[in-house]
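Consider this record:
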Amino acid sequence: MVKSDSVITVNTSSIIESDSLPREAVRGDGLVSVAHSEIRRMIVSGDLAPGDRVTVRPLVSLLGLSPTPIRTALAALERQGLLESRDHRGFFVPQFSLGDLLEIYELREALEVIACRRTVQSPLCMQIVADMESLLEQQRELVEAGDVAGYADLDVKFHQLLWVGSGNKRLAGVSENLFGQMRIGNKISTQMPGRPEASLNEHEAIVTALRSGDTRAAERAVRSHIRTAAKAVSLLMNNDS
């Protein structure tokens, strides 16, 4: 078990791939945004693994940016919990314990229950549902093809729709950071036999409840989904310890 060393609008089109940003078209503060997006992507994808030291010089060469926006981006990522600073040693990708991950799941549950409630009340609820259904179909195809990594990427997009659908930009931002932290520390829940298929059924229950406008059912479905995922992570990490 690893342990550590000590303006979104309510519009689904606001979910943008960071890789699509034209680096040559941005200046000033935009360079910080590019650095932040690229480094975040490397952390969440695992290109920078838990425990890795993250220093400025290699990133200057890799991203083709000057040190200043990279330093600013690293500091922002630390504030968001995606990096940790160690005295006299610089920044490192966090190594989360099971306790850390269970705290993250607990917070995600609270936030997504709120997101469900607000999404049901949103005039764009049916558009959110339609987009979720489209993602569900794509997820089914990926699971059938055994593409677990592709499935996991669409899982992020599924939950992003719920956060954005809430219309609460602060909720969306906090949820995004929590999901990023969860993906750093946990790439194992989808490795549990039958878990991707079960997760698809749980996603379908969320969508069904949202489509029916049943707030309580939507909250129950989200709560059950996140708690089941947390139990799977707990079981697997305890078995590995």
Residues 142 and 151 are 6 Å apart (CA to CA). The chain has a mean pLDDT of 84. The chain is about 65% helix and 5% strand. The longest helix spans residues 215-240.
